[in-house]
Design goal:
- The chain is α+β, with helices and mostly antiparallel strands.
- The protein has 4 domains: about 100 residues, Immunoglobulins (Immunoglobulin-like), CATH 2.60.40; about 110 residues, Sandwich (Immunoglobulin-like), CATH 2.60.40; about 230 residues, Glycosidases (TIM Barrel); about 220 residues, Golgi alpha-mannosidase II (Immunoglobulin-like), CATH 2.60.40.1180.
- The chain is about 25% helix and about 25% strand.
- The chain contains 17 helices and 36 strands.
- β1 and β2 form a beta hairpin.
- The radius of gyration is 37 Å and the shape is elongated.
- The C terminus is likely disordered.
């Protein structure tokens, strides 16, 4: 043994490396410049021999420990570029020294991560293929602060955890290492040794790709740049933040489509403004489906590559269609190789076992007390919004985040410091999310799926509220579907389920939903409705129309296998919504809605106005939930004018019977619905009609008929003069006689 080498070596540290307990291997194994030369070390378990190659020269390494620890002192006054040449089992491999490269995470980035404000943590954590000092390899980084040791294992080191123990950053507990020769396509995991000596292999929480499930290994990906062509859309989408634009959302899953083009063409054909995609992240359990997110940064391989997903979003943007993503920051699945007890401790999940499990799904709830856990989720939101150009996120299951007692009985939950049921840490996380996204990503919308009654969820963080842009109006859909499930004869007894929503419509900024969770597919929806097939289809057309003319954004999920008539209907309904300012411009203003008649429960009819500040843009809506048509239905109207039908769910091209109003009608000065003027319309059974309103001045309207009548009287006057004179004389004589009689009685 070379005495000079022996003297420079850290034997306690070497022993820790050999036994898999060293957290700072760079401090021990990095090449070191000494007064006697350059000390180079390597741990090559089961190796027969090892050399250091510097240019054309080779330096034999001496085995310092029988476990396979080698070292050599080479001449020189600076650390050269070099390779290892290691022979084991008769095979020789050449590779770079992982401990010769500096860490890639800066101190500022580490501090930001610890503070929960490193919004682009995914740029450094995870696996990133790169080139450092002319050497190609992959930088690995994973957060596991309570681990005894973390090693990266994969195709590049024969899945041997002894080969590449990672270096712990003391401030954060992030383990990092650059591995030369680890290239895109290689599989890898993190081998984590926890207290007690237990070793587990974990999927990379920040990994951007995984094996095809049920396999769970992460995959190194290339940093290929994508050429986006949606700049015009990305600039224009900011208009949606003002809440004055029509938003008609088509909810779907990528697994419903054979290829991206099919979905793009379908959405364009049916005229939606936006698409909402079920989670596109990798999941393991087919039964739980996409909402059981396993790998938060990895698009599932079931639907293609990350580039395929970007191509889809780019194409949708090119046709003027926005894309929302379902996102699950509330919970994650229990899986030994996932986030569960990641470093041997409840790192990502709530540390309180009694509060860690979702009471309904059996999944783990996140620990929102941890800044680093919050950073993991915040960075994930930025990842999908910035890297994939999603136009917003719909946060799933927000109730379980906000309420400590969600799904729990009395005694099964622990109150906060104030003795109430609010999850204060989760509330602060959501405030942080909504405020920073609004600040950093203009135009991106955040939608909460929250079934409770959290007050002013969509009010601003500046007003000390949570700051979502919109929330699902599950109360509306629940009441509405319950109403529709009744036989039309019985609907008069639950008429308030139609009208109640307008009492709270402006308490929040809502998305109205008739999606998969509410009614399922079109066939599922039909199964919930009374009547024969044609009546059920009529009610579906009526239901979609009522949603479209009701204040709030719209979301539906009828599926893709629709009849031509239903496709035509949905296209025209979306066209109505997109082209009529009254249906969106004052959607969040009390003045944008006005009841005409809401109490005709015996008739099962609703009548109301959608308005703007311009009377001529007003729309009159009449909806009949009865199974019989009204052929001469009188409706009070807001002003004197003409009323023209612009949409009717009963058109024959939609599959209806054709009970429509083909011609515009001028109102009559006949009181109805406590209004001076009224119009009589044909209203289809189980149908809806929408009318444009054109004000007309009464003087102008009456001028022409009056003139014609005067002309006719004048023309007839010469022929009837004598007759008129005789009649006038008789009337005068009668009046005189009446006066004389009255005078005598008075005397």
């Amino acid at each position: 043994m070379n005495n000079k080498v022996y003297e420079y070596m850290d034997w306690p540290g070497i022993e820790a490396i050999v036994y898999g307990e060293e957290t700072s291997p760079k401090d021990i194994m990095a090449p070191r410049l000494t007064k006697d030369g350059v000390l180079i070390q390597g741990f090559f378990p089961e190796a027969e021999s090892a050399e250091v190659i510097v240019g054309n020269k080779k330096y034999a390494m001496e085995q310092q420990d029988e476990a396979g620890y080698f070292a050599v002192m080479i001449p020189g006054r600076k650390i050269p570029s070099y390779l290892f040449s290691v022979t084991a089992d008769g095979k020789t491999e050449e590779f770079g020294d992982a401990y010769a490269f500096p860490g890639q995470i800066t101190e500022e980035e580490e501090k930001a991560f610890c503070a929960g404000v490193y919004y682009h943590a995914y740029e450094k954590l995870g696996a990133h293929f790169s080139e450092i000092n002319g050497v190609k390899g992959t930088s690995f980084a994973v957060w596991a602060p309570n681990a005894v040791q973390v090693s990266v294992v994969g195709d590049f080191n024969h899945w041997d955890g002894r080969r590449h123990p990672m270096h712990r950053m003391p401030m954060s507990g992030i383990f990092e290492l650059f591995v030369p020769g680890a290239v895109p396509g290689d599989l890898y995991k993190y081998q984590i040794k926890v207290k007690g000596g237990i070793v587990t292999d974990k999927t990379d929480p920040y990994g951007t790709s995984t094996e095809m499930p049920p396999a769970t290994a992460s995959v190194i990906t290339a940093n290929a740049s994508f050429e986006w062509q949606d700049g015009e859309w990305m600039n224009a989408r900011k208009k949606f933040k003002a809440r004055k634009e029509p938003v008609s959302i088509y909810e779907t899953s990528l697994r419903d489509w054979e290829n991206p083009t099919q979905l793009v063409n379908y959405v364009k054909k049916l005229n939606y403004t936006h698409v909402e995609l079920h989670p596109v992240m990798e999941y393991l359990n087919e039964e739980d489906g996409e909402f059981g997110t396993f790998a938060y940064y990895a698009p599932t391989r079931r639907f293609g590559t990350a580039e395929d997903l970007k191509t889809l979003i780019n194409e949708l943007h090119m046709i003027g269609t926005g894309v929302f993503l379902d996102w699950t920051p509330a919970h994650f699945p229990c899986h030994e190789e996932g986030l569960e007890n990641f470093d041997g401790t409840p790192l990502y999940e709530n540390p309180d076992p009694s509060m860690a499990i979702h009471p309904m799904w059996g999944t783990y709830l996140y620990n929102y007390e941890s800044p680093m856990v919050k950073d993991f989720l915040l960075a994930n939101a930025f990842y999908w919004l910035e890297e994939f150009h999603f136009d917003g996120l719909r946060l799933d299951d927000v109730d379980s985040m906000l309420y400590l007692d969600y799904g729990r009985e009395y005694g099964q939950w622990k109150p906060n410091i104030y003795g109430t049921n609010e999850n204060l840490a989760a509330v602060e996380f959501l405030k942080h999310l909504t405020s920073i996204v609004a600040q950093k990503i203009p135009g991106a919308l955040l939608i909460a799926q929250e079934d409770g009654l959290w007050p002013e969820l969509t009010d601003s963080v500046e007003n000390d509220h949570v700051g979502f842009d919109y929330k699902w109006n599950n109360n509306w859909s629940g009441d509405f579907v319950a109403y529709l499930s009744k036989d039309p004869i019985e609907r008069k007894y639950v008429h308030d389920q139609l009208t109640l929503s307008m009492l709270y419509a402006y308490c929040e900024h809502y998305v109205l939903t008739l999606g998969k969770r509410d009614v399922g597919t079109l066939d599922d929806f039909m199964s919930k409705l009374p009547g024969n097939e044609s009546q059920k289809l009529a009610q579906i057309r009526e239901a979609y129309t009522y949603m479209m003319v009701h204040p709030g954004l719209k979301m539906m999920a009828p599926g893709k296998n629709l009849s031509g008539e239903m496709e035509t209907f949905i296209h025209d309904l979306n066209e109505l919504y997109r082209t009529q300012p009254a249906l969106s411009l004052m959607d969040n203003d009390y003045e944008g809605f006005e009841w005409i008649q809401l109490m005709k429960y015996e008739e099962n009819v609703l009548t109301f106005l959608r308005k703007t500040e311009k009377p001529e843009e007003s729309l009159l809506v009449v909806i009949n939930f009865a199974a019989i048509p009204y052929m001469d239905y009188q409706v009070g109207v807001p002003f004197y004018g003409k009323y023209k039908e612009i949409f009717n769910t009963d058109r024959t091209e939609y599959g209806g019977s054709g009970t429509v109003n083909p011609r515009a009608k001028t109102c009559r000065q006949e009181e109805c619905d406590e209004r001076e003027n009224s119009v009589k319309f044909r209203i289809p059974a189980l149908g809806a009609a929408v009318f444009s309103c054109t004000p007309v001045k009464k003087r102008e309207a009456a001028a022409s008929p009056v003139k014609k009548a005067t002309e006719k009287v004048a023309a007839r006057k010469p022929r009837s003069t004598k007759k008129n004179e005789k009649t006038a004389k008789k009337e005068a004589a009668r009046k005189t006689a009446v006066k004389k009689s009255a005078a005598r009685k008075a005397v």
